[in-house]
Every structure is written in structure tokens, then in C-alpha cells.
Amino acid sequence: MRLSNATLAGLPASVRRPAYARNAVTPGIVHLGVGAFHRAHQAAYVDECLAAGETDWGIVGASLRSADTRDALAPQDGLYTLAVRADDREELIVIGALLRLFVAPEDPAVLLDVMVDPAVRIVTLTVTEKAYLRNATGDLDADHPDIRADLAAPASPRTAHGFIVEALARRRAAGTPAFTVLSCDNLPNNGVTTRRVMAQFAALRDPELGCFVAEEVAFPSSMVDRIVPATTDADRARVSAALGLTDAWPVPTEPFMQWVVEDHFPAGRPDWERFGVTMVEDVTPYEEMKLRLLNGAHSSIAYLGQLLGHETVADAFADPAIRRFVDGIWQDFIATLPADAGLDTADYIERLASRFANTALRHRTAQIANDGSQKLPQRIVAATLDRMDEGLGVDRSAFALATWIAALAGRGTPPAFTDPLDAVLAPLLKADGDPEVVVEAVFAAAGFAAASPHRAALVAKTAAALATLRDVGPAQALALL
Ligand code: CS2
User: Fold this and answer.
1) Could you say which of 1.10.1040.10, 3.40.50.300, 3.40.1620.10, 1.20.1290.10 is the CATH number of the domain covering 284-480?
2) CA proximity to 85, closest of 208, 227, 260
């Protein structure tokens, strides 16, 4: 038997379940990119709001590509289990916030119909860094084939840009107030970035529509945080056994969760702050702290872990040499954060250390290693350039960037992780290529430090670190550092 509305009442008493009548909930949010992260994060916050009686904020979830999530969850009426894991403990929570699921490419028209419904007041996104379709200067990549396709056929979009702009245009024509667009991706100033690419896309359709999107639509920024490893078959089997019912796609996660959101929702929003969301005027300091200290350390651990044969973050973090490196990177990057923003960075890294040490999560280093070309600019490069502005040392940062290149070059077949620039990077990564030439070419391809006066110095330092990694191997190179 499957987890579903009909079987919910029979769950063991230890399993938390929606404390509200699901059939009374109506949609107020459309979410694009309904993957595991969204289901462990925003949907969990919204579930609490629904339980507190704010029943007009249910979520309609859409996948922009794959049918996997819909196929797994539609037979379960959108229900799924969060498996909240810490070392030897596990709490199971069935989430009811997802009311319906769509696979956008199957029928873009029905998703657009939902997005123009006046009851939908917020559109949220977790589509990953690469789906913002930016070029090296951060502008919309207007030549991307999906952008061209969406300009040519606005009524059947493929991209988040196409759906959001077409829905906003239709609402405007119908006199329906615009929804607020809330990015929940790990990008700096994610609201500003989203506004920029959406307005540029809209302007390509019609300059006036571009102005409307840029000036009349709200794009608050947000910082999102919860560690969510990919679900394994072992998770499916363990959770289903505990439920006494099959859950085709439970989501393992950690107890910690954080969401800091700029409070600019002209069309209204749930009373999120009652459930632990921090509503602020400016999210920038929180976002920088999170991207540099959590994600910067995560990516460093991922590539070092790949090079040194550690399968999970907890394994890698238990390696004293890696731990020392991470402690160093934390101090390096804390020095780049504003001292007057009221951030308790010491407390933050202490918590991070215990989160990374959580052995129950089995968060694979290969998972985090994906998409480095899209992630490292905000996780490592930005803080590194800030240090160079101050004349501070960047040996550890350069080493982290070199581990990315070394791990990319040594991935084996099939590759343990992938990057959207693989086709461009592959020929550049020759094992015996001159390190300066390799690093220069990789930085150019990925646009790292493109406009910075420190670019040449950073390339040289990264090349030196790559040369050491090759000469003495990762363990010895780390020890030398
Ligand atoms: C990770 C993040 O996969 C990755 O790149 O660094 O997904 C990380 O787990 C989350 O940002 C935590 O909030």
C-alpha cells in the first residue's frame, strides 16, 4: 500500500502528519523546481503555516524537466516523508503542503493557467544556479537555445524565465496584481539576479514589458539553508518499513533549517516568522555568510574528499588534515564578512562543524562536487578577491580552486560528478598540460574573476597549487599547505 490521503490515518503514532484537513487547503504559491531541497525546506515551513490555519497558502509544484517527482508523488496525493536524521536518531514527518504536481514540458499551458490564477500570490524557485541562464557578466544569455525558443513561442515556455514573464504579462493584461517572485537558490542577491534576468528576458519580448517586470514586480532576496542529501534506495526501504506503507520518494535531511527573507511581498505572504523564518530588510550579510562559510567549505570538502577518497562529507570532515583546512578557510572567509552586521560568526561555524559531522546524513562529496563552475564564483572566488583587495593571503582559496580543477581532471569514467561546462572543460584538462595554461583556460571558460584586477595573480597562485597537487599528490600537498 502507498502513502496517500486515504492511508494517512493508519500511520504509526510516532510519525508526524499534516495536522489539518488537506482538502480545505487552496493554492497560494507556485513553486518551480520541486526537487528534494524545496521539499525539505520551504514546503516544511509552509506545512506549519497550513497547520496554524493559513489554509490559502498551499503549494503547486512544477518540475521544469523531469517527470520523476510527479511520477513518485502524484499517486501519493503529493504526500512524502521527511526523514530528519542526526547520528543515530531519525524523526519522520509527512508533509502535506504540496497540493498538485506538474511536469512543465508535458503541458505548459496548464501550468500557465495556474500561474495566472489571482489566488497565486507568490512564485518561488529552486532551479539551481545554472538555470538562471546568465553569461559571464551576469546578464541573461540571450543566445541560449531555450531562451530563443521561449521568445519564439511565449505560450509554451521551457524556462523559468518564459513561464514567469508570460504569466506576469497575462496577469497584467487581465488586471490581476503581479505575484511576488522569490528565488530560493544559492546565489548572492538572488532576488536582484532574478529580477535582472527576468526583466532582460521580458525586454526582449517587448521593452515596455521589460520595464514593467523591472519596476512593478517584487523580487525579494532570500537565504535558504538545509542540508538535503540525495535520496537513496536504502532511505526508501527504511522509511517505507517504518511507515508500514510505501513512500516512493522520502527526503532525508538534518534537524537544522534556516530561511532569511527580505520582507517585500506586495501581494501578501504567509505569516512565516511565526515558524522560525527571519524576515529582514536586507538579506545580503546573511547570504554572504552562508555562501562563503557553509557552501564555500562544502565545495572545498567535496573536491578534497574526491581527491582523497572520502565518500561523504562526514567522512571527509573527520579527516584531521581536511578539518584543519576547513578551519583555516573559515577564518579566511570570516575576515571578508562585514563586522557590523550583527552576525555571530563564531557560533555559526561551531554549528556548521556539528552539522558537517552528522554521520547519519551520508551527504556524498560527489553530489556537492557537481556544477563547480556555477557555484565557486560566489562560494570561493568572491571572498578570495575581497581578501586580495585587503592585501591578505589567499593560499588556501587558491588551493581550493586547484582541487576543483584536479578533481575535474581525475574524475574517471563514468565521471563521479558533472559540470554544465563539461564539453568546454574536457579538452582543457589534459593531465600533463602546463598548469598556468590549464588554469588560465579554465578561469576564462568559467568566467572566474573576469573583471577583477587580481585575476592574473589568482591564476598564478591557483596554477602553483595545481602543480603541487600533481607533483606530490593531494595528501602531501595539503600537509605542505
Ligand atoms: C551543497 C548545498 O550541493 C551543494 O552544493 O553545498 O546544496 C548545501 O547542502 C545547501 O546549500 C545547504 O543549505
Assistant:
1) 1.10.1040.10
2) 227
